Task: structure prediction
Amino acid sequence: TITPLPIEQREVTAVLLQVDPIFSVGLPNQINEGPVAQAVYPIREINKFFGTFIGPVLGLLVVITLMICIVSGVGILVSIYNSMSDRRHEIAVLRALGAERSTVLWIILFESLILSITGGLIGWILGHGLVACASPIVESKTGVAVGFFDLAPALPPYLPISPELLLVPLLAILAIAVGLIPAMAAYRTDVSQSLGK
Result:
């Protein structure tokens, strides 16, 4: 068990002052010049802590997320491209029924877009669900409450907004980029050869 210190041994270890900004400019210097106490701005120290430790960790997590997105994009590219050989006959039938080459191209790009954005949204919901489930434990240990809809913090000066707000636009760009190769393969499908198989 923890026994409290006797009253004569107790000391004041910290005092939080709320001072008017006009008077707080020179106050830390006056206190720090003496040998008895040390003054700090809590918000400055918190920002320094976040900049030194939390910022790089968040940056690393963003880089890992980008790498996962790129690997997923390559997986979507391979999946759609491999399915092209099985679907050449269907594409040729579409073309024979009057679908233009650009229509076939847009169908493949749209398929890639749906796969990417759906996967990203499912991952976002699962990730935030796990965070919401772990929130009571985090709050009991740190005092920080994290909800389902709380977004990752911004990464100034590199990224002034939450990286999560870029999820859908970046996934759309990635989907178009990885869907372009199979879409071009579908675009170039020879109708007569594919229908003859």
